[in-house]
Amino acid sequence: MRVLKKSIPHLFLMAYLLIILYPFLFVLFSSVKTDNQAIASNPFGLPSSIIFDNYINAWVNAKISTYFFNSLYIGVLSACLSILFAAMLAFAVTRMRFNRLSAVVFQLILLGMLIPNNSLLLPIYSMMRNLNVLDTHMALILPYVANAIPFSVIILAAFMRSIPGEIEEAAVMDGLGSAGVFFRVMLPLTVPAIVTVFIINFLGNWNEFLLANYFLSKDELRTLPVGMVGFRDAYNTNYAQMSAGIVFSVLPVMIIYAVLQEKIIEGVTAGSVKG
């Protein structure tokens, strides 16, 4: 009975996992089937023959490669810039001696978490138009960086508060200034939290659709989520190739979560316990 009681939660979790993964498995199996007839005749079964031409056609003919690298470039650059600015701000509010000002700034950062991003669409569009960066990648990079700063500061500040002050004092005694302490001491010690913030920000930028859809009209500048909508409209009669395009958009995210999920948990919980 004891073994049975311990097995019941695992059985529920396995059933839940199958329910979550089944739509992706359906798309994965459909992407290697020959045509719509093969999908319709056996929609939930394994393919009788594996066809990789769907991936080649989707990558080349549907410009998935262009959309993919646009999303990769914008996502990585935005995540790195947001980490740099957020780390400097977190260092200022946690390690520098501006008690009242630091408290006020941190409260303003917390307020930034309460504002829904979709409600800022029109103000952001107006700002990007005034800056004359619409129809350029900067129209996405600037909002992505700004939107990621509040969450990034909260995570990095929690980690920096847990770092002993003696390390900072020893660095100052060795002749380091504020910039030296930040770049040579604090940043290396904050790597676990930085990795977590980078992963979360990158995945958010990778999956973002609303701003990318309205701020970019040129096809060669579009990101993968927006490109997939056009791919669906152009190839809605070829479900095999459309499924291949969906796999291209989903697979990198699943790989990042599978490989780096421990880093995400480690960075989120970092700084919660002092010792």
From TrEMBL:
Record-level GO BP terms: transmembrane transport
Transmembrane segments: 12-32, 72-93, 105-125, 137-160, 181-203, 239-260
Recorded topology in the membrane: Multi-pass membrane protein
Keywords carried by this UniProt record: Cell membrane, Membrane, Transmembrane, Transmembrane helix, Transport
Keyword presence, Transport: yes
This protein's GO CC annotations: plasma membrane
InterPro entries referenced in this protein's UniProt entry, alphabetically: MetI-like, MetI-like_sf
Superkingdom, taxonomy of origin: Bacteria
Residues of the ABC transmembrane type-1 domain: 68-260
Assigned protein family: Belongs to the binding-protein-dependent transport system permease family.
Protein name according to UniProt: ABC transmembrane type-1 domain-containing protein
